[in-house]
Specification:
The protein has 21 helices and 59 strands. It has 1196 residues and is mostly beta strands. A hairpin with a 2-residue loop joins strand 18 and strand 19 (274-275). The model is unreliable at 1-27 and 188-192 (pLDDT under 50).
Length: 1196
């Protein structure tokens, strides 16, 4: 496999490097220009001429702003065109290389002295240049531009020249004016990115870390409101697993793989310099659990994607070290849009999305005919008999038939169904031909709409950006509606030339519905994973027999059940409000010194209301069986009074339903003060010092309440019986709960950068911080983190000119760092955790409150730490037609928090402590090429590849069999962080029962899922996190058309197939088509590995057979590769010509049609339609759908 990859990479590089270099025979000066002008301002005309001619036209705005132009030019040269446009104006032009300079003409004026201010931007991307040099030519007077590219220089004569220069840019000598906007063009054509760390801005030429900047347009997938999902395949080293596609759930994002064993390993989100904390900490396994808490697991679900300007992904320690003990898993910095001076615009974006309904053709689920054949065999084997199925806990076609047979109508004197072979067969034959399409019943093609309006305007004194958005999603399936509203205001006020204030306020509100759900449970003894009252439509469609009638009530939990009725009467309402206010003041105390202070307050409140109405199956199940002694004795939801040995079970919910509510509130306060000093010595020595301090305070509150007996149909009046409280007291259950946590931290940091002539750059960062989360000892609570790094811009060397015909730019960089993380959110035993509980007493009258030590104190609990070495290179070929970036890294993570067994001193056998370590390494590269670049047609290609491996080197925790074989994977020393193991399957015995090799013993039932000893017999299958990720994208443009074809891929992980085998099946269940190849007669064990459907007699004789079938779901037979290649996006857009829309005062108009998640180009055939990224756990989980989006963008 490795050789194949190497061969593929080499071939791909060769194809790119040896593409014929395109030569444009027609020089710019020979281009013929045609342009129509009608009373248009001269600056606007020159901008249009710049696009038509291909020249860069340089002018001083004050010189040309007062002139207007009218007329027409047809098939003229650039010189003739300029002569016509500048006729009768006191202006002249000069052409040199690719530049045209427009200046004033006429007699010399008397020398004047004035102050000059302005901004210097890059001609590459229009971004401000940080640290550009502005000097009065012939003198030593000069300044450096600040982080916004702005400069101010005093006492400048209009007879002098101002020289603007920057590393890798062509210098310019310009006549000074009071206000100047200068654009510098690339010299060696290095990529002039501005790196935004969230605390400071640096030019990429002076940046020594591993980072990737992405514009919002590159990342955004229209129709997916959570923009974090668009990061998949966009940056090397960043993997995004869509373990659930439900709105509000976060994808599983990893920057260079896992960094913690029990922690989340998720990157830190920073928006406009402020850390975005999660309302609730959701671990990596919980993201795919389907539990309701995952609906608020995304930190940026309330962020409107149209408000985002760019993403900066900080990957190595050099890039992230400024965040110290928060940055071990990487940092994703989001910069939102702001107003710009001289720009006034109103924009509208409308997205209209329809999602495809899943089809049974994609899965290997049995149709109703095949399923009824299985039921017939089950009937013959004693399972679906009248006496058992009539009163079964769960029953479908057969249960309904027996109920009709026993249902007597005294008015007609008839039974619901005659108990004759002919009547029974006719009823079953009708079910056999039913072939219900549950996907069509539960899903729809409803159109989702997302509307966004923004206004931006600005002057030299102030600017603002304001936006409003509204999203309305009727729901892909029933009870999945979402409505979201956002508002954003970003204002900047330049009070004085050296004092400015930036104020940002944002708010979002989300109202969402979800099917009613409870948390999943694992039976550690039998290995069975269950979720009571699960009505997830996607899970239901896959796991429910197609022989059922959608309009008929069947039986679940002993009570009548119909999925459509249940979804209408058992649902969750989610309300999330998120508000953030922040302000930053910047004071340029000296030309080279800038002081700033930032403060932010963020408040989030979410409520989760689970409405279980009176007539729902879940509520009815609590009172079913009161008139049937058999069901009454079997229904474990009924209550038997332990005070009375003769008592019969009674209902603790005789009336009404259940109202459950959970509230989560979060208040975060942040303050940061920084100082930045930039200085240029002798025009070659560039220095930058950055230092500051920050204080954070985060308060979280959770409460839980259960309203028992809520009568939804009787005016929402509660009706409850005292036995409910009596049962709760006896079992130690709480009907309400409250939890408060406060996390505080304080830190000081400093960063120093030195560059000699732009060639050699060294950088160092130091941060010292403390938090109340850690142990009370100073060495545990306070931690220094640091970074040392350097870069060599080879293209700045004189000898590089000999390679300039092939190499455009070349940079080498290296870094070594120490960063850290606070560890899992739930590990808080830096102090002893003492918990109240109710000891078991046989009678209510003897109850009392007790205390116990749930976690003994660990005063040495400290940060998880990581040393990282990163070595990288960036290079460009053939005038940057091909760009190549590569990084290799090695990590050593230590002091990781894990569970360690103790001697039991303090009341606990297992204790959380810093006892684990792991190592990892990886390589990542990106290739970007401009395959064809002409006037009307272009073709650009991007190929991204990342490979990362990790290994747990030290872990004292003793894992159980169930931990290691479950679908999420688990940590074990000598294996990856999320390693998946399987029980070795050796075949079927002569009765069709699966057999396993347990420590050399062949057995079917002697399997202990709870044991932690002698588990080396388990077979290691591979990691559950992919080791290879990347993408292959091609963008084609022809005139105003743009076609984007984007493919993502993932390799190296394994997935557990859906557990569908059991010792006992109900007539509600659907089965995969593998069952058609099951063992049926002796001798079949030689040709198949699909176990038999055992008879009821076999089970009664040996009830341990349940272990054999549960183990089969976790055996080597039920494993598949998680490798896939996905057609992620195909989109076609069209920008309407200006000549069409200008008369309507429209500045831009475009239409875009996008298809997302179209299909899997490759996946393991064993998956049989199962999405390799998605865990079908029920609850609120659903996969990312196949969808089509039409987008309208309009600007005025």
């Amino acid at each position: 496999m490795r050789n194949n990859w190497n061969l593929f990479i080499v071939c791909f590089l060769c194809v790119l490097c040896f593409q014929p270099y395109q030569v444009n025979a027609q020089t710019q000066s020979q281009k013929k220009i045609t342009i129509e002008i009608s009373n248009e301002r001269l600056p606007s005309v020159l901008k249009r001429l710049e696009k038509l001619s291909g020249y860069k036209i340089l002018f001083t705005y004050d010189d040309v702003k007062k002139f207007t132009v009218s007329g027409s030019v047809k098939d003229k040269s650039i010189e003739q065109t300029l002569d016509i446009i500048l006729a009768n104006k006191p202006l002249e032009y000069h052409i040199e290389d690719q530049f045209i300079t427009i200046t004033s003409k006429g007699p010399s004026k008397q020398a004047k002295v004035f102050n000059v201010k302005g901004v210097v931007i890059s001609g590459d991307d229009g971004q401000p240049l940080i640290g550009a040099t502005v000097v009065i030519k012939g003198s030593k007077s000069g300044v450096l531009t600040d982080i916004d590219g702005k400069f101010s220089i005093e006492n400048v004569s209009n007879k002098s020249l101002l020289q603007f220069s920057y590393i890798g840019m062509k210098p310019q000598d310009l006549t000074p004016t009071p206000t100047m906007n200068v654009t510098l063009m690339p010299d060696v054509q290095t990529l002039s990115e501005v790196v935004v760390t969230g605390m400071q801005k640096m030019d990429k030429r002076l940046f020594t870390g591993a980072t990737k900047q992405l514009s919002a347009d590159e990342v955004k997938l229209d129709g997916l409101p959570d923009i974090s999902r668009g990061l998949e395949g966009r940056a090397a080293g960043v993997s995004v697993q869509n373990v659930s596609g439900t709105f509000g759930t976060a994808p599983k994002i990893r920057v260079r793989g896992a960094t913690s064993i029990f922690g989340s390993s998720k990157p830190l989100w920073v928006v406009d310099g402020v850390i975005m904390e999660d309302a609730i900490d959701v671990g990596p396994d919980d993201l795919s659990s389907g539990d309701a808490e995952t609906l608020i697991s995304s930190a940026i679900a309330g962020l409107n994607s149209d408000d985002i300007e760019s993403f900066q992904i900080l990957k190595d320690g050099s890039a992230t070290s400024i965040y110290g003990a928060r940055a071990m898993a990487g940092v994703i910095v989001v910069t939102t849009k702001k107003g710009k001076a001289g720009v006034s615009k109103m924009s509208y974006t409308g997205e209209f999305t329809t999602r495809m309904i899943p089809s049974y053709k994609e899965f290997n689920i049995m149709n109703s005919q095949e399923q009824m054949g299985i039921y017939k065999e089950m009937e013959q084997k004693g399972w679906l008999n009248n006496s058992d199925t009539y009163r079964a806990k769960d029953s479908g076609v057969y249960g309904r038939m027996y109920q009709l047979i026993n249902q007597y109508n005294p008015a007609t004197g008839q039974f619901g169904l005659a108990n004759t072979p002919e009547a029974r067969n006719a009823y079953l034959r009708e079910a056999e031909m039913r072939n219900t399409d549950w996907f069509n019943t539960l899903f729809s093609n409803n159109v989702t709409q997302n509307h966004s309006v923004s206004i931006t305007s600005g002057t030299e004194k102030s600017s603002f950006y304001a936006s409003l958005s509204a999203m309305s999603d009727p729901g892909w399936y029933k009870q999945s509606e979402v409505k979201r509203y956002t508002a954003n205001l970003n204002t900047t006020y330049n009070i004085y030339k050296n004092l400015s204030i930036n104020l940002i306020s944002s708010a979002s509100y989300r109202k969402q519905k979800a099917p009613g759900t409870l948390s999943s449970e694992v039976n550690a003894a039998s290995g069975e994973v269950t979720r009571q009252f699960d009505i997830n439509p996607y899970s239901y469609a896959l796991n429910t027999s197609r022989a059922l009638d959608p309009t008929v009530d069947y039986t679940a939990n002993y009570a009548p059940f119909n999925i459509l009725h249940e979804l209408d009467n058992n649902y969750m309402d989610l309300n999330v409000a998120d508000v953030k206010f922040q302000g930053e003041i910047k004071w340029k105390a000296l030309p080279e010194l800038e002081l700033s202070a930032l403060g932010a307050v963020r408040y989030q409140a979410s409520s989760q209301e689970h409405n279980i109405k009176d007539h729902s199956n879940q509520a009815t199940a609590y009172r079913t069986g009161m008139d049937d002694a058999t069901i009454r004795d079997e229904n474990n939801l009924l209550y038997t009074n332990p005070d009375n040995p003769y008592a019969l079970p009674i209902s603790i919910l005789p009336e009404g339903g259940i109202y459950q509510r959970k509230d989560y509130r979060m208040l975060g306060v942040d303050f940061r003060a920084t100082a930045s000093w930039n200085h240029l010595f002798a025009e070659k020595h560039i220095t930058n010092l950055f230092a500051g301090m920050e204080v954070n305070d985060l308060k979280r509150m959770q409460n839980y309440f259960q309203g028992w007996g809520m009568q939804y149909t009787m005016g929402e009046i509660p009706s409850y019986v005292y036995e409910f409280f009596k049962k709760g007291i006896e079992s130690g259950e709480s009907y309400y709960g409250l939890n408060h946590t406060t996390t505080r931290s304080v830190a000081g940091f400093a960063n120093a950068t030195y560059s000699y002539d732009g060639r050699y750059t060294v950088n160092g960062t130091f941060r010292y911080e403390g938090t109340n989360r850690m142990g009370k000892s100073r060495s545990s609570r306070w931690l220094p983190t640091w970074n040392m790094s350097g870069a060599w811009n080879v293209h700045e060397e004189n000898f590089f000119k000999t390679f300039s015909s092939v190499l455009s730019h070349l940079t080498f960089k290296a870094s070594y760092s120490l960063t850290a993380d606070r560890g899992p959110e739930y590990v808080t035993n830096s102090h002893a955790i003492i918990t109240s509980y109710s000891p078991f007493r046989p009678f209510t009258s003897g109850q009392e409150t007790g205390l116990y030590v749930s976690d003994p104190e660990n005063s040495e609990l400290t940060y998880e730490k990581k040393h990282e070495l990163n070595i990288g290179a960036d290079m460009g070929f053939l005038d940057n037609r091909i760009n190549f970036s590569i990084d290799w890294y090695k990590r050593n993570n230590y002091d990781l928090i894990g569970i360690t067994p103790t001697q039991g001193v303090g009341g606990s056998i297992y204790k959380y402590a810093n006892i684990a370590s792991m190592k990892s390494h990886g390589i990542e590269f990106t290739i970007s090429s401009k395959n064809i670049q002409s006037k009307d047609f272009s073709w650009h290609t991007d190929f991204i590849f990342s490979k990362a491996k990790n290994e747990v080197t030290e872990l004292n925790a003793r894992s159980s069999v169930m931990d290691l074989v479950s679908g999420y994977g688990f940590a074990r020393q000598g294996y990856p962080v999320r390693g998946l193991f399987s029980i070795p399957f050796v075949g079927l015995n002569s009765n069709g029962i699966p057999m396993y090799n347990i420590n050399g013993k062949i057995t079917s039932t002697d399997i202990d899922f709870q044991t932690r000893d002698n588990i080396d017999y388990l077979k290691y299958e591979g990691p559950t996190d992919p080791t290879i990720t990347g993408s292959f994208g091609n963008i084609f443009t022809y005139k105003a058309f743009k076609l984007n074809v984007f493919i993502t891929y993932s390799f190296g992980n394994v997935v557990r197939l859906n557990p569908c085998f059991s010792y006992q099946y109900s007539d509600l269940s659907s089965m995969p088509r593998e069952f058609k190849n099951r063992w049926t007669v002796p001798g079949d064990e030689k040709r198949t590995n699909i176990p038999t459907i055992i008879s009821k007699r076999q089970y009664e004789d040996n009830k341990d057979l349940m272990y054999a079938y549960n183990a089969y779901n976790y055996s080597t037979e039920r494993i598949a590769k998680g490798d896939f290649i996905r057609m992620k996006e195909i989109s076609l857009s069209y920008d309407f010509p200006q000549s069409w829309i200008a008369p309507a005062k429209i500045s831009n108009l475009s239409l875009k049609l996008q298809a997302t998640n179209l299909f899997l180009i490759y996946a393991d055939k064993k998956l049989n339609g199962q999405d390799p990224e998605f865990f079908n756990t029920g609850g609120v989980a659903s996969p990312v759908p196949r969808q089509f989006t039409l987008t309208l963008r309009l600007g005025f």
